[in-house]
Amino acid sequence: MRKAIVVLALVGIGVMLIYAVGEMPPMGDSGNPDKVHIAPRYLEHGEEEAGASNVITAVILNYRGYDTMGEVAVIFCALCAVVAILNREKPGLSRTSMDVSGVKASVVVRTTIRFLVPVIIFFAVYIILHGESTPGGGFQGGAIIGASIILFTLAFGLPESTRKLPLRFRIPLESFAVIAFLAAGFTGIVFGVHFLTYLMPGLSEYAAETIRHIMMMVIEIGIGFAGGIIFTSIMFAMIREDQCELQPDSP
Amino acid sequence: MDWTLNLLLLMLLLATAISVIRIKDLLAAAVVFSAYSLVMAILWTQLRAPDLALTEAAVGAGVTTVLFIITIYRTVRKED
Fold first, then answer.
1. A124 occurs within a structural domain
2. Which of A13, A89, A161, A226 is the most exposed place for a label (fewest CB within 10 A)?
3. A235 to B59: CB separation less than 8 angstroms, yes or no
4. pTM confidence score
């Protein structure tokens, strides 16, 4: 009996969903609202309205600034949840069982990674700083920074990584993206326009453009470095094992 | 548009996606999932979305795979 009700309800929902799909505009049709109003506006006016020649950056930072701010906050909340459950690593005490086992990564691996990591970080910084005119931006660059630090940790062990990136250095950077976004948003309110308006009124055109440029740059750099450090911190929190859990034969 | 390459990539995507669900070994599934992300990243570039391709390659193939493997490594197997 209950099964029949469940099946009936599922069929009903399915029929409604299929009916709703039939009401939607045809997929990829050139007459759809998003292609008639939104896309041409972004493509034609994106550069002067949003101040970024890469339309995607213009959409991410300007037209859909709220979305991006929410995403940044979500990543930050994810870090908060992970740290609340797993706690931070303890300087000098936290190790992985890989470190304790005494088996080091081979010379080939370590040398390759020592050469590669600076190049990867350089590439990430290029992606972050060049996000206004080429594909990429804060999120992408941040993910690459995080990946490079993870690579380093896997080859050289957790103690070496936490020595290179201590907590006092990571904690301010983790919240940098949210703070940069909020600061940029409230700057607009202080100047008497809407939240997250980058173009300040009452200034000369050149000054307003420059300020907008600097603000977008700060937000991009903030997203990039904060994203990378947040990935790193999550990974450190997950990989760490405390001394008491392991065999006491550490150096 | 090079449709044979796209067809090949889509077939590979389907194959990896199905094998991720079918594989019983979690570590192997994580590695295959990383391959899925890599194929998806190439497909994003084919779809003219380089931003997404960068994200997919860095996050999907790189960071999440490591996080999955750490999780598998730090948890224990428990069966009835």
1. yes
2. A13
3. no
4. 0.81
